[in-house]
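Supplementary Methods. Inverse-folding protocol.

Structures were first reduced to a discrete structure-token string of length 354. This string, shown here, constituted the complete conditioning input.
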């Protein structure tokens, strides 16, 4: 009986030891430098991200996760020892790793210059904003738009068939805009789909209070944390949007709903030659594209043929090129992200990188 108990206890102890070893093997210790200020970024929703440098980083990178046990204090630059553990089952829109603070190696005071942020109503005023999404659904029409008169606290626009107009109040401190009653022309709408969209749009606007955010190319009306209405600059500003896309290099941060932490995948656009290029993980790729104000079509991509020794990196490359090979996408630029959609579903999200 005693031998049996000892044996069971021994087996249990071994299992605990092996479990502990397996857990340790799944984790590694990395060194991170954390910048003294955060930066605006968009993951699942707009937020303020830490900016970090890894061991071999030349430039600051957005950090879309959190570090357990670490409290960032504005105005201090940190050097941290961090335990990074790879998740077994990664939830949608979550990092592939869990980060936990091991030790604060260094903390130094750095002066932070205040960033002058322009009021979103001032930035958006007296422009024509075309509806691109309503309650998360893409809008395939250029007939619905709105314009905000900052000085008169009035708005006007189109619901698709009828002109709309009314007044609003605005609180600059909270950036909240409250729409009053909406008046409209009374023309009959022969197109049922346009009529339905107009009804949905005016219902979403009427007697509602929204928080405004604008990136210069997009205007968003938030209800809490949800994007109720999203607008884009009108087609005559298409060049502005593409100039913004073309002047930046973009790094993959989300694919098919999964956050890509420290992804090596990038894409850039040569506007003069209508060519795209980048790194797909192991290889460089390139090709041509055609673009409109909200659509992009990729031609066949050619790539180098280096062998990929890392299985995970090889699979990342395969999935990315497979999605890109489906060619036709809708896109928008929100804050500092370039988002590609298929069938109204976000499939690729890129963030600005150096």
């Amino acid at each position: 009986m005693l031998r049996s108990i000892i044996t069971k206890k021994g087996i249990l102890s071994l299992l605990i030891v092996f479990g502990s070893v397996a857990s340790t093997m799944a984790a590694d210790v990395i060194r991170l430098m954390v910048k003294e200020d955060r930066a605006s970024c968009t993951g699942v929703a707009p937020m303020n991200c830490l900016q970090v440098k890894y061991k071999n980083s030349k430039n600051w990178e957005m950090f879309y996760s959190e570090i357990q046990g670490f409290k960032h204090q504005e105005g201090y630059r940190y050097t941290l020892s961090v335990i990074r553990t790879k998740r077994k089952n990664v939830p949608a829109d979550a990092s592939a790793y869990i980060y936990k603070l091991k030790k604060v190696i260094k903390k130094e005071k750095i002066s932070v210059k205040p960033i002058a942020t322009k009021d979103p109503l001032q930035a958006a005023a007296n422009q024509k904003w075309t509806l691109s999404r309503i309650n998360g659904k893409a809008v395939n029409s250029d007939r619905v738009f709105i314009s905000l008169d900052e000085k008169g606290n009035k708005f006007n626009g189109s619901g698709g068939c009828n002109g709309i107009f009314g007044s609003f109040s605005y609180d600059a401190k909270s950036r909240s805009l409250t729409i009053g009653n909406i008046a409209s022309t009374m023309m009959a709408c022969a197109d049922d789909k346009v009529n339905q969209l107009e009804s949905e749009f005016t219902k979403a606007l009427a007697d509602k209070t929204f928080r405004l955010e604008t990136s210069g190319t997009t205007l968003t009306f938030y209800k809490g944390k949800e994007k109720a209405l999203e607008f884009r600059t009108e087609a005559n500003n298409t060049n502005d949007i593409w100039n913004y896309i073309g002047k930046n290099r973009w790094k993959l941060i989300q694919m098919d709903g999964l956050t890509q932490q420290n992804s090596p995948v990038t894409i850039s656009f040569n506007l003069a030659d209508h060519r795209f290029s980048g790194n797909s993980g192991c290889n460089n790729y390139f090709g041509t594209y055609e673009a409109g104000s909200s659509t992009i079509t990729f031609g066949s991509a050619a790539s180098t043929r280096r062998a990929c020794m890392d299985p995970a990196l090889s699979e990342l490359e395969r999935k990315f090129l497979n999605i890109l090979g489906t060619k036709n996408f809708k896109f928008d630029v929100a804050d500092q992200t370039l988002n590609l959609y298929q069938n109204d579903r976000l499939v690729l999200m890129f963030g600005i990188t150096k």
